[in-house]
């Protein structure tokens, strides 16, 4: 064995088989006893340190959806054939894809980056944009716009300025540098978000049908490549127990808990990927987000038709002290993994050199059905990739309507009782309107939107302050898309079933009033701890409400994200299902801006609806 | 006038995109001697009057609270410079 | 990718374009963002856009060059500082200074690259308010005798898009006095100075008038519906100006 | 590993918007001892092997040509730092 192999006390599969009684830090890595036992059962032996690292991140709530999966199924079940007719790729891939006609397709998705944005608002929000944009690229699309629904604590709380200005600057700093127009979002202040701001990010991309790419590794002998930024210790600060793979007492080296984004690297990555797609140089592709290489290798392998063999020492490192387990868990940004057939290797490398993007070949697709990861030739991971990526634990968490729900709903404001406070004269009415308009949640948002580039690309037909953002897709025909995101945590708190429906209805209306036909939904479900039956009820009701409403309106959910454990101590945030609706315009020239037009003198005003 | 210099650098374990871009550019200009570059900040604080220990203490505090972001940066130096 | 439909803003000359026969290079650096937009503006003005890659050394016989906006090399170090050393820039610097006086336009990051290259004097620092700003901005054309402004009237006010983080134009007093005395201030901000630029300067030219740099983005105001206030097309004049210059005409 | 530190500051006659913002913020945080602040850049160049005079000369050149823009900035310091 080389000195390199001895750099760490490598825990090989062979070693694991002969040392069944080694104590493993599964609890520190967030696994429950039953989950650890399940891993031992699946493997028929104790996991190696590297395997433990992979299972622990992939079976986390964030990656496995273990608390929400049983409920999320409704999005796939409550759909008619009619709703499916334009769905080219549904839930389960990096992002859903919807047919726009004329050979065009659109993909969009919304995700959360809540807790990183509380710790370090600028970088947390910036990397939130970076992550969602990579999801869109990995579908084969050119990203064309972003949106940012935001929720912060009370506007007059001393910490709100830190989080809010940092997050807005980070979203601008990253999104502007990528050349993606920001076409809308939300800004809500409420003390329930004080210790738990919601920083959600949406990206939308367009492609020709034939350019759609999926995250799968097929074709024995095809090569696996990692490209983009080097792998550092980012995001594994919390899992420092792995710094010593043999779990002895040696001191873990420093691991950053926050990630710093490099928008320039991501912009180059976008162009580089588009050039790969144009030349049909990749068979499958996956972005690296949470759970990094663990996620990319296990998902690519389990979506493919065989297995995968990877040599982990081939990964280019920013920090040479990283251990195999840490390399597998690292969340370093601006990386992608692709599967390339041998005849395209040279052409692939030429594209990398042109854009000066670093890459390294890690291994290849096999027909063994196993994901095998070696460290200097010694096997440190030997698993069925499906057990890592798709067959993790699923929980039917108990839930029940909270006891306090009735009292909450009964606590209403009746004008007749509180009459004294209502405006009676024209002057009072005016004062009330002015007060409302000046309230933090209603007042002008241009201090935010002026920090975002809304023009880049030259295809923005509507953006703030309009109800929906509109982007032209085809310059010849004017074909385009409209997007809006909405949520109201207070409504959802009062009645989660109806609240989620209202969020959908609002986003749907915003898209429709822009002149578009609503076609698809993506959602970001921001809730407290699923281990709290009250919160679990809110989540279950919201999903039931949203899926029922989608069926009613005939728009399918094509993707989304669940963010749980948004709470301070035992106090959860209000249930906040952020709903994004995408619509289609045959010609964006016919879009309808909101607001009175200067040339509208003398035109009639109608109020529609009930 | 005497000044207090405060130097702030990105933490070593944190990605420094600026330093990375500079490292990439140097060899193209014929500067091949450097293996790595990190870019930080240098602040010069001027003081009217004398730099007492109390003033220096203020500078150290300001360095930790306002001039650096302790999540991603380290204050590597706070010193008095005369010229 | 099929070629019959251009992917959003792909460079493909519109049929029937290039009536003037002019070929205008648009340079892409790593991190350039508005190259597709600049190419579209060139096309709408009636010329043929030619994509130029920063690392190449051939100007491909173009008749003029645009350095578009964006964040070349992330704007790391200083905006435009690293891009200035690209092989393509050496060619452009030579051609701009040659007897042929190749017309060169730098927009935003392109303007920053031109100052870093010393084709234009002065420099850009962070906006005085330290934030990125995106807004519809009114400019006054101060000099219509440059290669890129001949289609405007001197004193004409135009509304185009402004978006930048490091847009505060500065130069020493002597340089500023000289720029004014020689009529080399091409554009000034009107109504409000959005970044603290000295003497409200939004754009300048070199002595010969073939090299022009400006912070705001004329390429985002060339198509009704996608520019300032959903209607503005005031930026198109910049691109038609250079065509007029190339065929030797004036307004 | 020994490093070369390059310090670059905005020219004194140039208004430094970042420094100005910091001067404004300091008293609000109770730091009242400072009359002015200027913000510049500190680069740390790492070298594999020994720092010879030739390497130091490269660093000086890089400082003047790439790391600073003489129109707005001065290189105030190029020195070897050991740790
Ligand atoms: N964080 C944000 N990012 C981008 N755009 C935003 C953001 N917050 C609000 N906006 C935009 O500002 C405009 C006004 O927002 P808002 O007052 O929430 O509108 P409405 O009440 O009509 O939903 C909308 O166009 C919205 O998309």
UniProtKB/TrEMBL annotation, chains B, D:
<dbReference type="GO" id="GO:0006189">
    <property type="term" value="P:'de novo' IMP biosynthetic process"/>
</dbReference>
<keyword id="KW-0963">Cytoplasm</keyword>
<dbReference type="GO" id="GO:0005524">
    <property type="term" value="F:ATP binding"/>
</dbReference>
<keyword id="KW-0658">Purine biosynthesis</keyword>
<protein>
    <recommendedName>
        <fullName>Phosphoribosylformylglycinamidine synthase subunit PurS</fullName>
        <ecNumber>6.3.5.3</ecNumber>
    </recommendedName>
</protein>
<dbReference type="Pfam" id="PF02700">
    <property type="entry name" value="PurS"/>
</dbReference>
<dbReference type="InterPro" id="IPR036604">
    <property type="entry name" value="PurS-like_sf"/>
</dbReference>
<keyword id="KW-0547">Nucleotide-binding</keyword>
<comment type="subunit">
    <text>Part of the FGAM synthase complex composed of 1 PurL, 1 PurQ and 2 PurS subunits.</text>
</comment>
<comment type="function">
    <text>Part of the phosphoribosylformylglycinamidine synthase complex involved in the purines biosynthetic pathway. Catalyzes the ATP-dependent conversion of formylglycinamide ribonucleotide (FGAR) and glutamine to yield formylglycinamidine ribonucleotide (FGAM) and glutamate. The FGAM synthase complex is composed of three subunits. PurQ produces an ammonia molecule by converting glutamine to glutamate. PurL transfers the ammonia molecule to FGAR to form FGAM in an ATP-dependent manner.</text>
</comment>
<dbReference type="InterPro" id="IPR003850">
    <property type="entry name" value="PurS"/>
</dbReference>
<dbReference type="GO" id="GO:0004642">
    <property type="term" value="F:phosphoribosylformylglycinamidine synthase activity"/>
</dbReference>
<dbReference type="GO" id="GO:0005737">
    <property type="term" value="C:cytoplasm"/>
</dbReference>
<comment type="pathway">
    <text>Purine metabolism; IMP biosynthesis via de novo pathway; 5-amino-1-(5-phospho-D-ribosyl)imidazole from N(2)-formyl-N(1)-(5-phospho-D-ribosyl)glycinamide: step 1/2.</text>
</comment>
<keyword id="KW-0436">Ligase</keyword>
<comment type="similarity">
    <text>Belongs to the PurS family.</text>
</comment>
<keyword id="KW-0067">ATP-binding</keyword>
From TrEMBL, chain C:
<dbReference type="GO" id="GO:0004642">
    <property type="term" value="F:phosphoribosylformylglycinamidine synthase activity"/>
</dbReference>
<feature type="active site" description="Nucleophile">
    <location>
        <position position="108"/>
    </location>
</feature>
<dbReference type="GO" id="GO:0004359">
    <property type="term" value="F:glutaminase activity"/>
</dbReference>
<keyword id="KW-0315">Glutamine amidotransferase</keyword>
<dbReference type="Pfam" id="PF13507">
    <property type="entry name" value="GATase_5"/>
</dbReference>
<keyword id="KW-0658">Purine biosynthesis</keyword>
<comment type="function">
    <text>Part of the phosphoribosylformylglycinamidine synthase complex involved in the purines biosynthetic pathway. Catalyzes the ATP-dependent conversion of formylglycinamide ribonucleotide (FGAR) and glutamine to yield formylglycinamidine ribonucleotide (FGAM) and glutamate. The FGAM synthase complex is composed of three subunits. PurQ produces an ammonia molecule by converting glutamine to glutamate. PurL transfers the ammonia molecule to FGAR to form FGAM in an ATP-dependent manner.</text>
</comment>
<comment type="subunit">
    <text>Part of the FGAM synthase complex composed of 1 PurL, 1 PurQ and 2 PurS subunits.</text>
</comment>
<keyword id="KW-0436">Ligase</keyword>
<dbReference type="GO" id="GO:0005737">
    <property type="term" value="C:cytoplasm"/>
</dbReference>
<keyword id="KW-0067">ATP-binding</keyword>
<comment type="pathway">
    <text>Purine metabolism; IMP biosynthesis via de novo pathway; 5-amino-1-(5-phospho-D-ribosyl)imidazole from N(2)-formyl-N(1)-(5-phospho-D-ribosyl)glycinamide: step 1/2.</text>
</comment>
<dbReference type="InterPro" id="IPR010075">
    <property type="entry name" value="PRibForGlyAmidine_synth_PurQ"/>
</dbReference>
<feature type="active site">
    <location>
        <position position="219"/>
    </location>
</feature>
<protein>
    <recommendedName>
        <fullName>Phosphoribosylformylglycinamidine synthase subunit PurQ</fullName>
        <ecNumber>6.3.5.3</ecNumber>
        <ecNumber>3.5.1.2</ecNumber>
    </recommendedName>
</protein>
<keyword id="KW-0378">Hydrolase</keyword>
<keyword id="KW-0963">Cytoplasm</keyword>
<dbReference type="GO" id="GO:0005524">
    <property type="term" value="F:ATP binding"/>
</dbReference>
<keyword id="KW-0547">Nucleotide-binding</keyword>
<feature type="active site">
    <location>
        <position position="217"/>
    </location>
</feature>
<dbReference type="InterPro" id="IPR029062">
    <property type="entry name" value="Class_I_gatase-like"/>
</dbReference>
<dbReference type="GO" id="GO:0006189">
    <property type="term" value="P:'de novo' IMP biosynthetic process"/>
</dbReference>
